[in-house]
Amino acid sequence: MAGAILITGANGTLAIPAVEYLFRTYPKYTAILTVRDDSDNYPTTRKLRETISRYPEVDASIRKLDLTSLSSVHDFATTLSDEIIAKRVPPLKAILCNACYWNLVGDPETTSDGYDKTFQINHISQVALVLRLLDNFALDGGRIVMFSSEAHSPGRAILEKFPPVIPEDLNLLVRPVANVDKAGAGFHRYGNSKLAITAWTYAFNRFLEKDPSLKRITAVTYNPGSLVDSRLFDRNVATSTRLLVQYIVQPLLPLARHQYPQMRLASESAADAIELALDHVHPGERYYLELLEKDESSPESRDEVKQERLWIKSLEWAKINKTNTALQNAFE
Ligand SMILES: NC(=O)c1ccc[n+]([C@@H]2O[C@H](COP(=O)([O-])OP(=O)(O)OC[C@H]3O[C@@H](n4cnc5c(N)ncnc54)[C@H](OP(=O)(O)O)[C@@H]3O)[C@@H](O)[C@H]2O)c1
After folding, report:
1. Cβ–ligand 1 contact at 44 (below 6 Å)
2. Which atom of ligand 1 lies closest to the CA of 15?
3. Residue 96 above 70 pLDDT?
4. Is the pLDDT confidence value at 1 over 70?
């Protein structure tokens, strides 16, 4: 077996065609596909199962993983790690931290761990997952793809009303205040979470590079573009936003993409995400990428002092300590 590819939110709009591309193009990989709801009643999980059934030669499993629960993330990592040690699953070659959440119509929601739901799903749980699984990578390393977005960078996203920020008081990221402008505040929480994961990944790479046994693992932050057919626009958004995307943006895509090259269908970024994860694109590099081009992330995300503060706080939020990650130099 070539190794295992772990994808979170594997029934998402980008993820399903990514899984199909992986199976069709690289059938020797084992696919570990995590979903929040693994029941057959959930339409996109059913669609994921149908995709798997078309490729009986591929070793693939769907696993339940709700990223709003840190204990579930840690339990999942323990189980997968045990399976890899027991050689029931091959060592990891890639993790795609693809799952995401936003709520542009409601107040901040708090998970059972006491964190803002958007921030926990998009940042804290993905941090916990990757740090727990580092020693389960193949000896020749692999790649971790963190999904960023133009939302991380002030002044770019059309839906932005309040610029994303890493605040002086980092607790505001996990306990944001409500605002009467629910759409603006919801997108702010999303943008903040994408800014956090983008900034955090710089610090993560510095620790990986310094560790002799983990330096062959590279992490990249990847903005897949504005995916006009994303399910993100079907739920937790105002009806006006949903209708605008459905009846104006989607039909105008062939024209709009000339002026806005980042506008595309999820299936177009799906193949890119897999090629990136398999280290076929910018091999061995640790870039921030827009589509598949090396780019500069926002100035704030590149601020090393902020990256380090976020790194330390994220360990605490994600309940990562010396005993549960292979990245020992993070605690020196
Ligand atoms: N769409 C865009 O325009 C765009 C632009 C820039 C960046 N991105 C990034 O690209 C990635 C893929 O986006 P997409 O458009 O494919 O999004 P999507 O269709 O909304 O998929 C998101 C996935 O995350 C899962 N998820 C949500 N809450 C979860 C939880 N608590 N636990 C586990 N999984 C959970 C969803 O599962 P459920 O259905 O079960 O909730 C879904 O499978 C995301 O990281 C996104 O931020 C997207």
Report:
1. yes
2. 16
3. yes
4. no
| C-alpha 322 to ligand 1 mean position (Å) | 30
45 CB burial (10 A radius; 0-12, 13-18, 19+): buried
Q: Give burial (CB, 10 Å; 0-12/13-18/19+) of 222.
A: buried
| Cβ neighbour number for residue 57 with a 10 Å cutoff | 7
- With the CA atoms of 51, 54, 59 and 64 taken in that order, what torsion angle do they form, in degrees rounded to the nearest 10? 30
Closest residue by Cα to atom 43, ligand 1, is: 12
pLDDT over threshold 80, residue 168: yes
Q: How far is the CA of 99 from the centre of ligand 1 (A)?
A: 4
Q: Is 218 in the pocket of ligand 1 (CB under 6 A)?
A: no
Ranges of beta strands (E only) in 26-155 are 30-35, 60-64, 92-97, 142-147
Please, what is the angle between helix 43-53 and helix 15-25, to 10°? Answer: 10
pLDDT digits (tens, 9 = 90+) for 223-269: 999 999 999 999 999 999 999 999 999 999 999 999 888 999 999 99
Residue nearest to atom 42 of ligand 1 (CA): 12
Using alpha carbons only, how large is the chain's radius of gyration in Å? 19
Say yes or no: CB of residue 149 within 6 Å of ligand 1.
yes
Whose tokens are 């060592």? That residue is 91
d(CA 55, CA 24): 8
Cβ of 108 less than 6 Å from ligand 1:
no
Cα–Cα separations (whole angstroms), residue 266 to 25, 83, 106, 177 = 18, 32, 26, 32
| Whole-prediction pTM | 0.98
- Helices 125-133 and 304-318: crossing angle in degrees, nearest 10, is 80
In this structure, how many other beta carbons lie within 10 angstroms of the beta carbon of residue 147? 24
The three-state secondary structure class of 288 is strand
Please give the class, per CATH, of domain 4-331: alpha beta
